[in-house]
Structure formats: structure tokens, C-alpha cells
Design a protein that fits this description.
The complex is a heterodimer of chains A (156) and B (292). Chain A is an alpha+beta fold and 156 residues long. Chain A has two domains: 4-79, Ubiquitin-like (UB roll); 88-154, DNA polymerase, domain 1 (Orthogonal Bundle). In chain A, 33% of the residues lie in helices and 16% in strands. In chain A, helix 2 (88-96) packs across helix 5 (141-154). Chain B contains twelve helices and 14 strands. Classes of the chains: A alpha+beta (156), B alpha+beta (292). The interface between A and B is medium-sized, with 30 and 29 residues.
């Protein structure tokens, strides 16, 4: 199948990419744009390791076709740090030790950022719900929730 | 994923023409949370599509709107998040908002659409029982125009709907709820989030003074399609609400459904849960009807 040219914003920069119709957004970002922070865990939308923000909304990029983001705004984990400074959620994960093997971390951070954008002062229950679509095989959830609560407090 | 040709029509007519042109080789794609998974797993309930018709840019399918004369219109392309967050749905059609809020994770809710959930026609679709309880109608568009179908008649079996290959579900119309109506939906799952209903129950009660004027009970995951429980409804209508009445209606709804046994639960367990959840949803709907 011939490639199709799409234009989108990735982490604030306008980008043109030639994509195969069967590529997912995740495949395009990792293989073509070489932004390998987002991970493929399950490939079926269950684990959240591939979470990105498209037009302000958290999505699992393994279930979105690359062609479907033509003309849209995509933020990946690589887009969170600004001017060499980590995003407060990233810093909170480091400060509280919310990272073990690290595979789920980019998705967790995207989900946490998206949650805090909607709900700046979440309860623990809201954090658990906001991250329900992100699995940590190391089961380090307690520290992850702590990191998100910490980031929320730091943002006050 | 096998390769396919991707089409991004910008009107409903264009989308229908593409489906007509490519027939069974084409599949409409909305949020992708069911279809893309099936395509990746090579487990589509149909031949692997060689044409994908994306509905993302079809403006006629988007959005939620409401008027006092027309009631509620939910575009097939409205996402679960849009439905769950809609102030009018939360206020006047509470069970529908509750159903939408239970579909998967935040990520899933941001992608999955009402049309996709209905057209995938899983017996466990969380949006279906609440829509059945509100007597929603499916608005279907095809080459020869629009037709309306009661949502009950839209589902034909697991993964099967009344849609022809060149037709699309364009929107769902939900009548204005009468004054004095309360509704509720919940489901049973072993895990609170990210799970598929073992049983889902929606109830809607319309009170006239101290009597139940109209009762609607709809069940998910206990029959080949989402279904109404007409005998339970009949047992409730005209009666004064009480725990005994609700227990009786719950027994009737457990008896009239036809669950299967699978890894999520035995048929017997499902009937038991239907009984428990029907009582619970009736009580909730009654409380809401009374508190207006």
C-alpha cells in the first residue's frame, strides 16, 4: 500500500510524515519519528504504556491509526520537559521513587499529567481511577500514587 | 495488522458512497478500541477489511445535543467521555452517563464512541442497557436515505446488528424523560475498572404520586443481545414501590433472562447477580425519581 503524507503537530512542532495506512500512532512515533519514550506493552489498549495526549485528551496510541492524527496535536512523553527542566510530574516520580523497571513510567506520567490538567487537586481515589488504564508489572503503585499526590501538592 | 486502504470522508454521504463502493471489503472505523484490536489479533468477526472508512471527520456523526421538544440526540461519533461529562445527560439521563463512565479506562473513554459500542454489539456493552431503558431509537443512514429503528431491534446477536454493509448508525435519539423519572445503571465486575460486565442492569422508574406509572428494566451480558426485561417491568407498573415489590420484580428479571456460562461467570451466578443488581438499581432509580 502506498504511503500517505500526513501533517501534524508533535510536541509543539509541525511535522510531516509519510505513513503506511496500517501503522498505529505508536509505530509512527517510535519507528519513524524515533521518539522511543512511549512503549508498547500489550498492543491492545489494556496496559497504557503507549499513552499520549491527542488534542488534549489521553489516548492509547497503540489503538489509534497514524492516519487518524492527520491535522491534530500530539504530545508524547518527550514533549513534557521544557527548556531542559523536567515537568513537575516527572520530577515528582524521581523524588518519590515512583519508578522501578521504568517500562510503564512514560505512560504513567502522561496519564498523571492528563489527570492533573483536569483535576489539579485529586483525592487518592481519583488518582487511582485516573491511572486505572495504566499497569505496572513491578506493582509499584503505592509510590506512583504518592508521586502524583506529591506533584499535585507541588503545583499548589 | 494486514494492510488496507484508508479513506477519510468528510461527509456522511461520502462515507456511505465509500461503503457502497467497497461492500463487504470495507469497515467503518470510529475510535478503534474494538476494531483495531480485532484487526491486530486477526480476530475480526468478518473478513479482514481491505478498506477502512474513518468516520472521524464526518461532522454529522459528532456531538451531543438536547432540546425540550426533541429530546436527546447522541451522535454515533460522540465519545464515552463526551457522554459521561455531558451536563444534560448527567442531569436528565443519569443511567446513560453512568454506562458511558464505565467503559474502560480514561484512554478508552476518550477514544471509544457510542456508535462503536452499539455496532460492535457485544451483549455486555455498557451503553446499551441504559439506552434501552430510555427507549432510544437508532437513526440509520444508507444509500436510500434515513430510517429509524427501536434500539431493541438494532441488536440481532453477538456482533450482529440490523445494519446493512452500506449503512451507518448516524445517531441515537432518546425521548424526553417524563417528569418524575429516575434512572440508574451499574454492572458487576470482579475488578472495579478496566473490566467487562458479568451482568449490567439499568432501571428507569416514572412515578405518579405513590405509584410506579412506568418501569423500564434492561439487562446486559445475560442474553445474546442487550435486552429489556418486559415481565419485570409489567410486575412493577401500577404498583406502590416497596422492597417486597422490587424483590419480586428482581426474581422475575432473573427468570426471564437467558445467560450463558463463560469464564466471567456461570449462568446460575449471573442470574443471582441479575436478582441482586435489579433490586439495587430499582431502589436507586426510585430514590432519584423522588428527589427529582
Amino acid at each position: 500500500m502506498p504511503k500517505q503524507l500526513i501533517t501534524l503537530i508533535v510536541n509543539g512542532r509541525r511535522t510531516e510524515v509519510a505513513v503506511e495506512p496500517r501503522w498505529t500512532l505508536l509505530e509512527m512515533v517510535r519507528e519513524e519519528l524515533r521518539l522511543s519514550g512511549s512503549k508498547e506493552g500489550c498492543g491492545t489498549g489494556d496496559c497504557g504504556a503507549c499513552s499520549m495526549i491527542v488534542d488534549g485528551r489521553l489516548v492509547t496510541s497503540c489503538l489509534m491509526l497514524a492516519t487518524q492524527v492527520d491535522g491534530r496535536d500530539v504530545v508524547t512523553i518527550e514533549g513534557l520537559a521544557k527548556n531542559g527542566r523536567l515537568h513537575p510530574v516527572q520530577q515528582a516520580f524521581i523524588d518519590t521513587g515512583g519508578v522501578q523497571c521504568g517500562f510503564c513510567t512514560p505512560g504513567m506520567i502522561m496519564a498523571a499529567k492528563s489527570l492533573l490538567d483536569r483535576t489539579p487537586s485529586p483525592t487518592l481515589e481519583e488518582v487511582r481511577e485516573g491511572l486505572a488504564g495504566n499497569l505496572c508489572r513491578c506493582t509499584g503503585y503505592a509510590k506512583i500514587y504518592e508521586a502524583v499526590m506529591h506533584a499535585a501538592n507541588a503545583g499548589k | 495488522m494486514r494492510t488496507f486502504e484508508y479513506h477519510a470522508p468528510t461527509s456522511l454521504n461520502e462515507a456511505i458512497s465509500l461503503l457502497q463502493e467497497h461492500g463487504e471489503a470495507a469497515r467503518p472505523l470510529a475510535g478503534g478500541t474494538d476494531l483495531v484490536v480485532q484487526m491486530k489479533e486477526k480476530a475480526t468477526k468478518f473478513a479482514a477489511p481491505s478498506h477502512i472508512v474513518s468516520l472521524l471527520r464526518v461532522p454529522e456523526l459528532s456531538g451531543v445535543s438536547f432540546s425540550e421538544s426533541e429530546g436527546l440526540r447522541i451522535g454515533a461519533g460522540a465519545t464515552m467521555s463526551q457522554v459521561a461529562d455531558s451536563p444534560i445527560i448527567r442531569e436528565r439521563y443519569r443511567a446513560i452517563a453512568e454506562g458511558a463512565a464505565l467503559v474502560g479506562s480514561i484512554q478508552t473513554m476518550n477514544m471509544a464512541t457510542v456508535g462503536g459500542n452499539l455496532c460492535n454489539a457485544a451483549p455486555s456493552a455498557d451503553i446499551a442497557p441504559p439506552l434501552l431503558a430510555f427507549e432510544a431509537e437508532a437513526v440509520i443512514v444508507g444509500p436510500s436515505g434515513r430510517r429509524k429503528l427501536a434500539l431493541e431491534e438494532f441488536f440481532l446477536g453477538p456482533g450482529k446488528t440490523a445494519l446493512a454493509a452500506d449503512e451507518l448508525l448516524a445517531e441515537v435519539r432518546v425521548p424526553l424523560p417524563p417528569p418524575g423519572m429516575g434512572s440508574a445503571y451499574d454492572r458487576h465486575t470482579p475488578r472495579k475498572q478496566m473490566d467487562i460486565a458479568v451482568v449490567g442492569v439499568a432501571a428507569a422508574l416514572t412515578m405518579a404520586g405513590e405509584r410506579i406509572e412506568r418501569a423500564r428494566v434492561a439487562l446486559g451480558a445475560v442474553a445474546p443481545t442487550p435486552v429489556r426485561a418486559p415481565q419485570a417491568e409489567a410486575a412493577l407498573e401500577g404498583q406502590a414501590p416497596s422492597d417486597e415489590l422490587f424483590a419480586r420484580a428482581a426474581d422475575v428479571s432473573a427468570a426471564e433472562c437467558s445467560p450463558i456460562a463463560d469464564l466471567r461467570g456461570s449462568a446460575e451466578f449471573r442470574r443471582h447477580i441479575v436478582r441482586v443488581m435489579t433490586k439495587r438499581m430499582l431502589r436507586e432509580a426510585l430514590d432519584r425519581a423522588r428527589s427529582g
